[in-house]
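Need tokens for this chain, all 529 residues.
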Amino acid sequence: MKIVKNSILLFVWLSAVISPAIAQTNSFKNIKKAYLTSTKALTISGEVKGYYTFWFLEKVNKKENSFMLTIMDENLETTQEIELTKDKNFILLESAYNGSTFCFSFINYKLKVVEYNMYDLNGKASGTYTTEKLSNMELQYMASLVASEDDVYSGGLMPVTDKGFIRYGMEKGDGWRYTMEMITNKGKKLWETNSGNEDGKAYESASPMYSNGNVLVSLISTRKGMMSKNMDAYCVFTNTTNGNELFKTEPVSDNDKKYVFQPIGINFDESVNEYYLYGEYFKSGDKIMKDKSQGFYFQNISKSGALIKESFASWTKDIAAKLPVNENGKMDKNMSIVIHNMVRTADGKLFAIGEQFKKSVSAGGVALNILAAANGQSGGSDAAIMKIEIHDMVVLEFDENMDIEKAKVFNKASQNVYLPKGYGSLSTPMLGYILKSRGAFDYNFTSMSADRTTFHCAYTNYDRNKAEASNYVIGNISYTGDKLEFEKIRLAKKPTSFLVMPAKPGYLAILEYFSKEKKIDIRLHELNQ
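Here are the structure tokens for all 529 residues:
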């Protein structure tokens, strides 16, 4: 990849005293293809300092394609435009920013490699790293994580603040073992590590959960057989300087080992200097890929890995007291909840931000499979028989003892996600985790004020109210220091796709892509205070 064009503007962080007369909007034309998963906010210590976008411009010739990287400040003023050319056989996977450097990964199925390209804030290429030739199994795995040509995503790249980036891979042994490589901002491999598991056949996978300048937290899943539903899940904490394992969590509870865990997310609470891990728990002997969970578990873990506290919120006892749950531990209408994030505010309260969903039968998929069978097609149709219905947002409020004080539901229109064949046999919690990791839910992000007194949670949705000019909406749930409030933002137009991102205090950033007009509009929306 090479730089073809640079703007004369240097990229600098603008201070918060910029005149409010700035329009706080921007527009880009002649956009042949937009990669919304590679449009992100640039943050430093949790504060939004700008944005970057990456999109396809045009075919330069028979062998090369042209892309544009645009960098904006926090008021959406363009500060840098960099035009990049790339061999047409390289397909964008994902992008990341670590506070000082951008990284774009491209896969080449013909050469069987992934290439990582690094750029500094001025758009100058700082390094390139190319993997060794990948196995067919690894290529197939990465291809399965690419949602579509226009909505790329691989889940194999994690920024490490100011130092570089972690890439996740696989290696064949007695089964499959996960690997992790640390790539510096200059494109050099600093270290490589794997699980170190030599105890018989195992099939492992790893995915990023959290990172800062010193520690990387990865979610590890392992099973004895490739198709086995008996899986262990735990977290590994890795030193980003040398790749050494610091410690790992247990896949079972510390309470007489009577529960099995499926981790979902982790935060680091600087106010108490502890990690906060959460997920769903199952009865001992249950299979987390098959059986229903008993509820949510929470762990406070010290920086050295010591378990400080472990607590549980069951469906039938704790959550049922705040949300309707039947005798089988299911919510009203057979709903489940996936937790997207947990935040602790300065007043000591803890909020779990989740979304309701349930697994159901796709009537259309069943009909097509019956028709295919009647026509003699072996294996039936490729149409999905099962689907996931995504429903309302839920915020659970806990006290300092991890007891649920309140639960509030924020209604929104439902949507369907159709499952590939074979996925319908997985447990609902496992499906929720898979869909969450691939960004299939409506939830977008949670941002907290610097003093931790307030937070905002945003989601995007398609509202079927045909009386309105546009059915596209953005929901914003705010905690104002004493209560939860809600605001619905309806788009005035009908974009091909749209995105909501965090912004400077009091605002949201909204991006709208119009494919027919080949245009992107982005603006700051002031929230109700």
